[in-house]
Amino acid sequence: MGKLIVRTDASVDEVFANYPDSVRDQMQYLRTLVKETAEEMGDVLVLQETLKWGEPSFVTKNGSTLRMDWKAKLPKQYAMYFQCSSRLVDTFRLIFDRKFQYEGKRAIIFQLNQTIPVMQLKECIKASLRYHNVKDQMTLGIFE
C-alpha cells in the first residue's frame, strides 16, 4: 500500500481557524485522529478534506462521509457526524454502548471537558472511512 494522500480544501483550514479558542484544540484533535487513523489503515489511499453543509468533512473512495463540527447554540459540546441512513451509529451503540453519547443515528457527541476513548473512536472512524467495504459485516469490521 502507498502512503496516504490528504487533499485539503483551503476552506477547511479557514473553518478550523475560526472556531472559538474554547473548542479549537478539541476540533483539531478530532481532525488529527481522522488523518492518523486513515494513515494507519493502509487501505485508504486518498483522504479528501472538504466542507459539506459548512462542516469539516472527510471523504474516501469506499467510505461514508464523516463530518465534525461545533455549534454555537450548544457551546459546551462538539460532535462527529455520520450518514444517518447507514448502520454506523447503531453499530457503534451496539458495540460500545455507554463509551459514547449518541445523537440519534447520526452523531457521537463529546463534551468539551471529556476524555475521549481514543481506541474506540478510531474503530468508529475506520468503519466510516471504509463503510462500503464492510457494510455487510455484522460489526462493520470493528475490532476484527
Automatic annotation (TrEMBL):
Annotated protein name in UniProt: YdhG-like domain-containing protein
Domain YdhG-like: 24-128
InterPro entries found in the cross-reference section: YdhG-like
